[in-house]
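pinned: reference chain
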Amino acid sequence: MKVLLAGGGHGHINVLKNLIKNPVDADFTLVTDFKRQYYSGMLPGFIEGIYTEDEISFNVPDLCKRAGVKYVEDKILSIDQDAKKLYSENAVYDYDIISINLGSLSNIIFPIESDHVCLVKPISEVVKAKEELDQYFKAHGQSGRLIFIGGGASGVELALAFRAAYKDVDIEIITAHDILENFNDRAKRKLEKILKDKNIFIRKNERVEKIKDQMVFTDKGTYDFTQAFITTGFRGPDVKFENFHTTDKNYLWVSDSLLAGDDALVMGDTATLRAYPDLNKAGVFAIREAPILYTNLIKAIENKRCFETYTPQTKYLQIINCGDKKAAANYGGLAFYGRIMWNLKDKIDRKYMEV
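pinned: its structure tokens
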């Protein structure tokens, strides 16, 4: 049986981890154009200098080799469900069962004409931008401005991480609404105070209209920058899904068993659950989906159709790395802050990275 793993996302990392421990009698192939799979939960710590690049990423070719999975480094262009074929830049792959775990991309909602803008998805772009900024500030001193467009958890956490890395650089957040709209009021107030204390300026209710050269143009003003980061939401991957049902942002509709068809499983940001169409594209949900994807993939290989189902948790812990080994947490109506929360996050993250 030919089993195709499209993408090297965290769901497929979990599949590889399980195959290393418990080999399965099937012909597995993984296709991706990213050799490293970065863990977003540890990205702020990498930016701050706490973790190395190796510590925050999985070596996908090495994991495939250990798991007995054929590794193919190629860009996926389209997947045809009816024909059961995956088309890449260099080849065509047939499959009996496919698992899709391709993540998401940054959603561009205004024109960008600049070489100094970083889209935060894929994460490799942030890693590259950090390396370039290190070189720039080493040569020019910490004179410059970093602008983060978008006031969600991603924008706030990245702004705090870069503040920890660069103590004297001007840092601003521009958001069309309020910051952290999915957080409770206590956590939001605490994080606003932390941002203010760390000299990170927030421009609320200001809509970006375009970015040109090294200037951000909004409906209220114009601001120069050294580097801008786009955290204004996400969209599906640049892959044509033929004979699948997709949303207007190119996410794949899936059942609560993570099925997009009889022989196609999908999880993570690439998937939108029919029963929960408004569910946030947050890592906490993908982590819970991963073991269900693996279980149901094995059931499909064994032709057992008693699939497990996934029900998103109504309350979930969100931890924001605030720099200097302190973190803030949002859980239901509760809020926490301090070194204990960072230590908890560090323990969870390091455990997750174990193979």
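why pinned: DSSP finds eight helices and 28 strands in the chain. Residues 278 and 294 are 24 Å apart (CA to CA).
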